[in-house]
Task: structure prediction
Amino acid sequence: MLALLEGCNSSKIITADIIDSDMVVPLADFEIKKGNTGKFEQHIVVQNEKLQYPICVYRFDENNYEALLMKCTHQGTELQVFGDKLQCPAHGSEFNNHGKVQNGPANTSLRTFPVTIANNQLKISLK
Ligand code: FES
Result:
């Protein structure tokens, strides 16, 4: 049980720059060290002091990402990431890696942000 919990809490957390209204995340931040082994994080948690909540970015493949605001749509508690789902510590709502509700009491999807890829960077539009 302990090992399982440790594994679940091992999200990589990075602080990213915000340029204009885009959060910019180098694709290299998804690489699981070292020396370009071809292995990638399934998700990373991205934060910036200007954001009240962090954003969880899931990587499905090199061209497909999902950026989700880690704010519970029930009463606004910050979510926790457990592998391919996000859970709310307040009342137990659960969301999948596209932000869809899997368990209430929340009944609306998480906020998602458009993601574009250019120059080996993800641009997450915060508009
Ligand atoms: S605030 Fe998240 S379930 Fe209530």
User: Anything to note?
Assistant: Confidence is low (pLDDT under 50) at residues 1-8. Residues 71 and 100 are 13 Å apart (CA to CA). The chain is about 5% helix and 40% strand.
